[in-house]
Write a structure and sequence with these properties.
The complex is a heterodimer of chains A (264) and B (368).
Chain A: E1 2-11, E2 14-24, E3 29-34, H1 40-47, E4 55-60, E5 63-64, H2 70-74, E6 77-80, H3 92-98, H4 110-122, H5 138-153, E7 160-164, H6 172-187, E8 191-195, H7 199-205, E9 208-213, E10 216-221, H8 223-226, H9 229-236, E11 240-243, E12 252-255
Parallel strand pairs in A: 3-8, 3-9, 6-7, 7-8
Antiparallel strand pairs in A: 1-2, 1-4, 4-5, 9-10, 11-12
Chain B: H1 2-6, H2 8-15, H3 26-46, H4 54-64, H5 75-110, H6 122-148, H7 152-175, H8 180-204, H9 207-218, H10 226-242, H11 247-253, H12 257-262, H13 267-289, H14 295-307, H15 311-335, H16 344-367
The chains are: A alpha/beta (264), B mainly alpha (368).
Chain lengths: 264, 368
């Protein structure tokens, strides 16, 4: 569905993304992980066509991403980016409805409004429908934004969902619900590419993991193969231990910090 | 959310029977502001040095349209209405609408509540060119009137507005990646420069020119006649007809430039469209009436407070409210010190400022 070949992005001589290649198929959930400044957000921007590649190519549905018009792309993929400041007093419903804008001309149809309602309920804020966005808490605002991305992607067949740290500011329950939702969508033949900070969540939900280190692919593959003690230490600079507890279905990644560990 | 997911089947079954609706204030807004505007027009047409009653007004119009065979209203009142009063009211409505719509759309484009036409150089460019003409007029009057006739000033002012806006726009593309903040900063820089130039002209001007420049800088609808209405009309009409089509894109812009792009908004073309439409309306208005401050800034805030921030409502609402505000302000400006006239720019700023501060205070209070 989306094929990235030797993608590179350079700005003023600094290579933010360098020679990254991977391909995502419908029904796959990809996690992009890496330390701060590793190029995760830049990669998402390249995939969403917000930034143009400086080398290599991205093919989306078999066509060069640069050949798409923004309007076409809006009907084929949804993006949730990191910063979402809104100061004007729009209601949550109006914000989520914006996700439907690419699909109707001047007035929303009953179907559009029904999708908005459904998406609000999906992320658990059906009751905040008519609340003003600026009065919501950070986590709730993020859920409204998620609902908006969801509303945009709702009817797309083989759609692509790009999420840049989708769970910022959410509480534990809603973080897991968000990933469960993303997983559910990938079961419906969506491709989901998400920047994830919590390695345990990546391990638990992703089908594939792309680990970046200073713009380059550090490791790529299934979570079990990528998220090893060694590679995490190399990419993040933190020694970790992977523990398989008898009662949990997944291994757990914990920082391997001795009691005498001093922060230098 | 977990519980909601459990009940999902149940709720979706219910949804199919329930009609969804989007609470929209557009219709309500159009009715309220439309009727207020109509009342203001009637009020403004009736008030003045020669006062006309509503009944007389009705007879004048009906007689002209041939609905009633004869009228008892004096000929003089009829002439005052058709030749002086009506074009002036029309001009106030048109210019008010242009200023309001430009303010609303530019505030949306810049995602900045303090933006208005003044900020991107429309107004200052127009004044600079107009002041130029006033200065040169005495010396090279013959040459200019040959070129542009009596509308020399208006034409040149419009040209100035277009040039400055174009310059600001190009400059922002060169200095930055065309981001909106850059555009805004370029506008401020050019404004300062143009302001200095205008100041220099004012400094060099003699007494008669000075009076002329001052009046022009403060704005007045005193020169209204059917020709000026016809000159402004098409520009404002285009701005009002096409701007509402941009309201969806302006709404998306609220999410931020990158999110708007991911929802299909082409920033470059949106920027160009909004700036061209706003400059057309405001440039033409400044050309016939001078610089009228504050309307473009305050009116959108007023509408936003009353009817919400959705640009569909906001753009139309700002056009209507701008017309209302300017019609009332003009009525006041020509009656308050009659038989003389107060420049309308003084009135809009003097009445606008306290009102604006009140709105800001209200908004803060509401949010807490």
């Amino acid at each position: 569905m989306i094929e990235v070949r030797n993608a590179g992005f350079e700005i003023r001589g600094r290579k933010l993304v360098d020679n990254v290649s991977f391909s995502v198929h419908p029904g796959e959930f990809w996690a992009i992980i890496g330390a701060n400044g590793a190029g995760k957000s830049t990669l998402i921007k390249l995939l969403s066509a917000e930034q143009a590649l400086t080398s290599g190519s991205v093919h989306f549905h078999g066509r060069d991403l640069r050949k798409y018009k923004l309007k076409e792309l809006a009907k084929k993929r949804a993006v949730l980016s990191q910063q979402n400041n809104i100061t004007l007093s729009f209601t949550s419903q109006e914000i989520v409805l914006m996700g439907r804008y690419p699909f109707y001309e001047s007035d929303p149809t009953q179907r559009d409004l029904a999708i908005v309602d459904l998406c609000l309920k999906k992320v658990g804020i059906g009751h905040l429908k008519s609340r003003l966005y600026p009065t919501l808490s950070g986590g709730e605002q993020q859920r409204v934004q998620l609902a908006r991305a969801l509303a945009q992607a709702w009817e797309i067949e083989n759609g692509l969902l790009l999420l840049d740290e989708p769970t910022t500011g959410m509480d534990l329950l809603h973080q897991y619900e968000t990933f469960r939702l993303a997983k559910e969508l990938s079961r419906k033949n969506f491709a989901v590419i998400a920047v994830i900070h919590d390695l345990n969540q990546a391990l638990q939900y992703a089908d594939h993991v792309l680990m970046l280190k200073s713009g380059r692919t550090h490791a790529i593959g299934t979570p079990e193969n990528v998220l090893t003690e060694q590679s995490i230490h190399e990419a993040f600079g933190l020694p970790v231990q992977i523990i398989q507890h008898d009662l949990t279905p997944y291994p757990v990644i914990v920082p391997h910090v001795a009691p005498s560990f001093n922060i230098p | 959310m977990l519980t909601e997911t459990v009940n999902e089947r149940e709720t979706t079954a219910k949804e199919t029977f329930q009609r969804h609706f989007l609470p929209s204030t557009t219709g309500k807004m159009a009715w309220i502001l439309g009727s207020v505007l109509f009342a203001c027009i009637v009020f403004s047409a009736c008030t003045g040095a020669l006062s006309i009653s509503v009944r007389e007004l009705w007879e004048i119009i009906a007689f002209k349209l041939g609905w009633i065979p004869e009228t008892h209203v004096e000929e003089q009142k009829s002439i005052v209405f058709w030749i002086i009063r009506l074009p002036r009211v029309c001009l106030a409505v048109l210019i008010g609408a242009a200023l309001g719509i430009a303010g609303a759309s530019l505030q949306g484009l810049f995602r900045n509540p303090i933006a208005d036409a003044t900020l991107i150089g429309v107004t200052s460019g127009a004044s600079l060119f107009a002041v130029f003409v006033i200065m040169l007029n005495v010396k090279y009057f013959g040459m200019l009137s040959e070129l542009a006739g009596t509308y020399g000033i208006s034409f040149v002012a419009f040209l100035g507005a277009a040039c400055t806006t174009f310059l600001v726009y190009q400059l922002s593309k060169v200095t930055g990646e065309g981001g909106i903040a850059t555009l805004l900063l370029c506008g401020i820089a050019i404004n300062a420069f143009v302001g200095a130039m205008t100041g220099l002209m004012t400094y060099l001007a003699d007494d008669a020119q000075l009076r002329n420049i001052t009046f022009w800088n403060l704005g007045s609808l005193g020169g209204a006649n059917w020709t000026s209405v016809m000159a402004v009309g098409p520009f404002v009409a285009i701005s009002i007809l096409f701007m509402p089509y941009l309201s969806k894109a302006l709404n998306l812009l609220v999410l931020g430039e990158s999110q708007a792009a991911s929802l299909g908004v082409n920033m470059k073309s949106l920027k160009r469209k909004v700036i061209i439409l706003a400059t057309m309306g405001v440039g033409a208005s400044v050309a016939v009436a001078g610089t009228i401050g504050f309307v473009g800034l305050v009116v959108p805030h007023m509408v936003r407070t009353l009817f919400g921030p959705n640009h569909r409502t906001l753009i139309i609402g700002s056009a209507l409210s701008g017309a209302i505000v300017l019609t009332l302000a003009d009525t006041l400006s020509r009656t308050i010190v009659a038989p003389s006239e107060l420049p309308i720019g003084i009135l809009t700023a003097m009445l606008g400022t306290p009102f604006f501060i009140y709105i800001l205070w209200e908004q803060k209070r509401k949010r807490l």
